[in-house]
Design brief:
The complex is a heterodimer.
Chain A (H helix, E strand, L loop, with lengths): L1 H19 L1 H8 L7 H5 L16 H7 L3 E3 L9 H16 L5 E6 L6 H21 L7 E7 L10 H7 L1 E6 L1
Helix pairs in contact in A: 1-6, 2-5, 5-6
Chain B lengths: L19 E4 L24 E5 L7 H20 L3 E3 L9 H4 L5 H6 L4 E9 L5 E9 L4 E10 L4 H17 L8 E8 L6 E8 L6 E2 L6 E7 L5 E8 L2 E8 L5 E3 L6 E7 L5 E8 L2 E8 L5 E3 L7 E6 L5 E6 L6 E6 L6 E2 L6 E7 L6 E7 L2 E7 L7 E6 L2 E6 L5 E7 L10 E7 L6 E3 L4 E7 L5
Parallel strand pairs in B: 2-3, 2-4
Antiparallel strand pairs in B: 1-6, 4-5, 5-6, 7-8, 7-30, 8-9, 10-11, 11-12, 12-13, 14-15, 15-16, 16-17, 18-19, 19-20, 20-21, 22-23, 23-24, 24-25, 26-27, 27-28, 28-29
Helix pairs in contact in B: 1-4
The chains are: A alpha+beta, B mainly beta.
């Protein structure tokens, strides 16, 4: 619990920085090859002119921001790398206020089934809490745990396990 | 109602109809005086040589049943590791002659210590009458005898009940052969594993899938009445505890909780389900009274508290918690008071299950990259490891508290090919056997003895 409070404080201070300059942070993350947002809102038929994923979609998030963060063995606290990704996710979500996200918590196969379900739930909430602290409306965030049931990377080795201990953002 | 479709509903309808059980007496033979006993408390014991004769049948049809019944009995006894059925090719006395009384000399010659004989008769009313007798070959006496009159379709159950009688008479312990196992049948690669609820007799026969695999299902457990199973299912990607009635096929969500419910287990009287509820990153243990639907919270701690299991007297609950920094086993009173840690050795401990005898708690232990199935006394003393491997998990007790089932998962290859199998092992750590299933299996849960 203590850890959680610390991350909340850290998140709150970051929030200040982000909120002060929404324009630049928006262009900084949602950029790339995406067409101007006016195109999509106008329902343009010139789709051939648009390259890259449609803004606000799962693919757009995955390509431009990233759709997951990773955890250490049996841990649910966020690493510095994870926080960096989540800060971008928060900005992205505030740029596309219609999007709602389910945060999936996953564990590697090196634990028991029921404990890993609880661990996955803890991880999903750790991610979700941080996003909320960064200013994402909690009503737009859901969590679900899959424990060790849905590995992303195949095989039974350290590399696979490291990538399977994860939180994943799924646009609903 | 959820989407999971049952492939079979009337599972136990037939199972409650052993209509006649008669003790058979034989005046012409003295009860055995010699002490023919199998001591099952000593770790590895030399299996007792036993002859299981084909049961006598007057017609070819009855002979076939008599043969099949004997095969099932012999297979049960063999799998227990305590008996060594003698090859029938060595038998001298045939079933017809044996029907009257054994020529004990014929059985001594082939070194049978015990002999099982019997008969199968299809009655005019369509029912099957199976009679069996257990003999002490060297003591030249009858040890026990029973007759059963049943619908012919449940002949396998009769064979298991006879095997239980033999086991009990020769070991002094209750048998466990007339029981079933519910488990998760698995297929497909690691990342697209299809999981289905399935049920079978403890020897793998009468196998049936209960769900069609459209929803992820995990951790089924039997109610003591055997009429219900509680398990975890993801319906529309929402994980919740469900109840399945095996007679009606009805499935229902257990309660209306704001978070994920999981790790369910029935109380010994079947009236309560104890389970975990995870909410906002915190997992606690709750009970639900199935009659009043009243919910009671047992744990209050920011740690993960899960995998609860009642003691057979319902007074205590053993569970898994990381409140001390890593996963360990704890025992508390049934009202949540008096929490005490019981596991103290190296590594992480999980999935505690209280033996139906009350004397031991089985668990999964993880240490140094290896998984173990072990047992300890409820006060944490007398810890022993029974099985180990890359991943072994989820012990469940046979109804007599002498045998455990669990599952083994082998390391997956780079293409995600996964193998998981069910096993049984003695409490003494000997006699590990695979339980043959049509496809892969995990999360076994052994039923109580069928009543």
């Amino acid at each position: 619990m203590r850890l959680k409070f610390l991350t909340l404080i850290a998140a709150a201070s970051l929030l200040g920085a982000c909120a002060s300059d929404p324009e630049t942070s928006n262009s900084g993350t949602g950029s790339g090859a995406a067409a101007p947002t006016t195109d999509s809102s106008a329902g343009s038929t010139q789709t051939s002119a648009i390259e890259g994923p449609t803004p606000g979609t799962q693919e757009h998030l995955t390509v431009n921001v990233g759709d997951r963060v990773f955890f250490d063995t049996d841990k649910s606290d966020l690493t510095a790398d994870s926080r960096e990704v989540l800060e971008k996710v928060a900005v992205w979500m505030n740029s596309y206020p219609v999007a709602t996200v389910t945060v999936e918590g996953h564990a590697d196969e090196r634990g028991t089934r029921e404990y890993n379900l609880a661990l996955g739930e803890r991880r999903a909430n750790s991610v979700s809490d941080y996003l909320a602290a960064l200013g994402v409306n909690p009503n737009r965030l859901q969590t679900v745990s899959f424990g060790k049931e849905q590995p992303a990377v195949l095989g039974s080795n350290q590399e696979a396990w490291a990538q399977n201990r994860r939180g994943v953002f799924k646009i609903n | 109602m959820m989407k999971n479709r049952l492939t079979s509903t009337r599972l136990f309808a037939l199972l409650a109809i052993i209509s006649t059980i008669t003790a058979v007496t034989m005046a012409q033979v003295q009860p055995a005086r010699a002490q023919l006993n199998v001591d099952i408390t000593q770790g590895f014991v030399e299996p007792l040589p036993i002859a299981v004769s084909d049961f006598y049948g007057a017609t070819p049809e009855e002979q076939l049943i008599g043969h099949d019944v004997a095969e099932v009995i012999a297979a049960d006894l063999e799998r227990s590791g305590l008996f060594r059925p003698i090859d029938k090719g060595a038998f001298i006395q045939d079933p017809a002659a044996l029907r009257n009384v054994p020529r004990f000399g014929d059985w001594r010659v082939i070194n049978a210590q015990a002999l099982v004989s019997g008969s199968a008769e299809l009655q005019a009313d369509g029912r099957l009458r199976v009679e069996f007798r257990l003999w002490d070959v060297f003591g030249e006496g009858q040890l026990t005898a029973f007759a059963y009159t049943v619908p012919p379709s449940i002949w396998r159950r009769v064979a298991h009940i006879i095997a239980d009688n033999v086991y009990k008479r020769l070991t002094g312990e209750e048998g466990y052969f007339d029981s079933r196992i519910v488990y998760i049948a698995e297929s497909g690669p690691q990342n697209r594993r299809q999981k289905r609820l399935a049920i079978m007799d403890q020897d793998g026969f009468n196998h049936q899938f209960l769900t069609d695999g459209s929803n992820l299902v995990l951790t089924p457990r039997f109610s003591p009445s055997l009429q219900e199973i509680t398990y975890l299912a993801y319906v529309n990607r929402v994980p919740r505890v469900y109840l399945l009635n095996l007679n009606t096929g009805q499935q229902e969500v257990l309660g209306d909780f704001p978070g994920m419910t999981f790790a369910p287990r029935f109380s010994p009287d079947g009236n309560t389900v104890v389970m975990s509820l995870a909410q906002q990153g915190n997992t606690e243990i709750y009970t639900m009274d199935l009659r009043t639907r009243q919910v009671t919270r047992l744990t209050r701690h920011p740690a993960i508290d899960t995998s609860p299991s009642y003691s057979p007297d319902s007074r205590q609950v053993v569970f898994n918690s990381d409140r001390g920094g890593s996963q360990q086993l704890y025992v508390m009173n049934a009202d949540g008071s008096g929490v005490q840690r019981i596991s103290f050795n190296k590594g992480r401990y999980a999935t505690p299950v209280w033996s139906p005898r009350g004397d031991l708690i089985a668990f999964t232990r993880m240490s140094g990259g290896t998984f173990y199935i072990g047992v300890m006394r409820p006060d944490g003393s007398g810890e022993r490891m029974l099985a180990e491997g890359f991943l072994v998990e989820g012990p469940t007790w046979a109804p007599n508290g002498r045998v455990l089932s669990f599952y083994r998962q082998m390391p997956a290859d780079a293409r995600g090919k996964q193998v998981t199998k069910l096993f049984t092992i003695d409490l003494t750590g000997f006699n590990e056997r695979e339980v043959a299933t049509p496809i892969d299996g995990s999360d076994p849960a052994w039923s109580p003895l069928i009543q």
